Amino acid sequence: MEERARDPHDAEASGDFPQLRLDQLLEGLQQQVEQVRAARDRVHTLLDAVLAIGSDLELQVVLQRIVESAVSLVDAEYGALGVLGEDGTIKQFLTVGIDEETIARIGPYPRGEGILGLLIREPRPLRLADLSQHPSSVGFPSGHPPMNGFLGAPIRVRDRVFGNLYLTNKKGGAQFDADDEAVLRTLAAAAGVAIDNARLYDDARRRQRWLAASNELTRSLLSGAEPGAVLESFTVTVREMADADLVTLAVPVAGSGELVVEAAAGTRADEVRGLVLPAAALAAKVFASGETIISEAVSADPRAEGGSASVVDLGPAFFVPLGTQEHVRGVLQVANVPGGPSFSDPAIDMVIGFGNQAALALEVAEHRRDSEHVLVLTDRDRIARDLHDLVIQRLFAGALTLQSTLGRVADRPQVSERVQRVVDDLDDTIKVIRSTIYGLREHDQERGGSSLRSRLVAATDRAGQALGFTPALRMTGLLDTDVPAEHAEHLLAVLGEALSNAARHAHATAVDVSVSVTASHLRLRVADNGRGMDPAADRRSGLANLRRRAEELGGEFRLASNEPTGTVVEWVVPLPRAT
Q1: pLDDT digits (tens, 9 = 90+) for 268-310
Q2: pLDDT band at 5 (very low <50, low <70, confident <90, very high)
Q3: Of the residues 59, 432, 493, 505, which has the fewest C-beta atoms closer than 10 A?
Q4: 163 and 246 share a domain?
Q5: Is 434 exposed, middle or buried (0-12, 13-18, 19+ CB in 10 A)?
Q6: Are residues 181 and 232 in the same domain?
Q7: Is 2 helix (H, G, I), strand (E, B) or coil?
Q8: Neighbour-count burial of 406, counting CB atoms closer than 10 A to its CB (0-12 exposed, 13-18 middle, 19+ buried)
Q9: What CATH number is attached to the domain comprising 468?
Q10: pTM over 0.90
Q11: Terminal CA-to-CA distance of the chain, rounded, Å?
Q12: In the predicted model, what is the mean pLDDT of residues 321-333?
């Protein structure tokens, strides 16, 4: 018997239809429960992410956790956080999902073009099904992984855009939806609070270190510590505060208008310490203008010529004047190696403030030394007056008295001879005292004259006219105080002869001059990259004079080949021991 088609009315009559509707209602209810559970789980995940990014006060740690939380919340394959600089470009780029090898293959991080730039120009959430189809898309660099779906949101800190979150490629091939966008916006709001807290903490910690370093600097200067050692300690402190690779401090050379790197700390500091900076160097421009200069790649900066950036390859850097615009006492350079991070505005402001504090401490210490020197001069004047008005006059009166008695003892030759000897001794004593007074006054006058450093700078500048370029000059040690006048004259004569030989015979395109003084020796080294020198040239009268000047002071003179080309002149003499 053929089965008859089942009629719905029969199902309703039999009671099956209410059961079917109940199953549909239960299934719909189950779906709603699953949606509620998913929403609950997502809220819990969001709360966990907010707690995670707010649980640390180290700014870099907070930023990395923000990116990782964003990727986890919206189930994205790739994520990034671009931190914006003052000029509106990306100055820091943190990524998740891309390994180091791929990052190296891609090259420099983006500056804010294409879709990333669109989010910078229009800071509001952006969701795209395929970012390559957007009119603002500019494509990807070679080696970049393929990306399709895109979700971005700005992070605001106190109503100012700090940076942007960029997420791409939702896992499973799905598209980012409105819920993903809402979650990312909530995370971005929480991230802004966490970043603000981290920055406040970082600023407070920097200020604490700044105050401690300022107090130590002031204490060292006012306690009479050696200024050179204090400046070295100052550069070390600045390097630690700014987390920099190299910090240098250039100060003016008295009477020359040039700058010399007096102190340096960090990467290859020994190579730039004592270097004389040309007028085209950025530090010299800062010294002349009193304005701070910031560079993203100082060694490649077209504004800079010469200076420490020509000796050491440097990347991000800034130059800060020490003191006021009207009275700049020196220039501080803070730099990182190429590829290193740029310096944040709070870090630059902190170094500027610390530099001003250091300049004030240096000025106070200088005034104190000047006051002490004035006291010494005043005391010397008093001693000179007493010697002249009391001692010399009494000695002179005594000599005249003895002289007048000679006629009375003329009949006693032995007594007369002894009296005359005493008169002669008194006369010699008067001459010694007068010469001592004059010597003290001449010494004080010499202190205000040209320093050895300025004379060395002038000598290299004069040689530049014959060479066609100014030699690179490096000066280290207490040249103005530890080198006796005789040694200084020999040094300048040897330097002039060495530079003259380089101009006349070497046909060099670069000459490096290094002058250093230690507790025991004075050393001069002149190296050029010319065609080298015939060994027989050592017999020339000019070089013979250099050897003779070294031997007169108990030192030695050496002439050697420079690698790969050129000549090296070394002149080393001992210094007299202090008595």
Answers
A1: 888 888 888 887 788 888 888 888 899 888 888 888 777 777 7
A2: very low
A3: 432
A4: no
A5: middle
A6: no
A7: coil
A8: middle
A9: 3.30.565.10
A10: no
A11: 136
A12: 82
Facing residues of 160 across strands?
157
Q: How many angstroms separate the Cα of 337 from the Cα of each of 235, 307, 314? A: 17, 15, 5
Q: Which helix (H) or strand (E) holds 169?
A: strand 160-170
473 and 545 within one domain = yes
Task: Out of 343, 358, 384, pick the residue that ends a domain.
Answer: 343
The H or E element containing residue 14 is helix 8-14
Give whole-number Cα distances, 419 to 392, 406, 484, 516, in Å: 19, 7, 42, 55
How many structural domains does the chain have? Answer: 4
* Tokens representing residue 425 in the block: 């001794």
275-289 as b/e: b if 16+ CB within 10 A: bbbbeebbbbbbbee
**Which residues, 6 or more positions from 417, have their beta carbon under 8 angstroms from its beta carbon?**
none
Say if 208 falls within a structural domain: no
Residue 168 φ then ψ, to 5°: -140, 155
* Residue at token pair 């080198």: 483
Q: Which H or E run includes 128?
A: strand 126-128
**Residue that is written with structure tokens 């819990």 in the block:** 44
Question: Rounded distance, CA 399 to CA 377, Å?
Answer: 30
Q: Which residues contact 144 (CB under 8 A, 6 or more apart)?
A: 106
Residues 172 and 122 in one domain: yes
**Residue-range definition of the domain harbouring residue 249:** 224-343
Q: Look at residue 429 and tell me if it is in a domain.
A: yes
Residue 286 contacts residue 321 (beta carbons within 8 Å): yes
Query: Residue 137 is part of a domain; what is its CATH number?
Result: 3.30.450.40
Q: Give the closest residue to 363 by CA, choosing from 314, 304, 323, 305.
A: 323
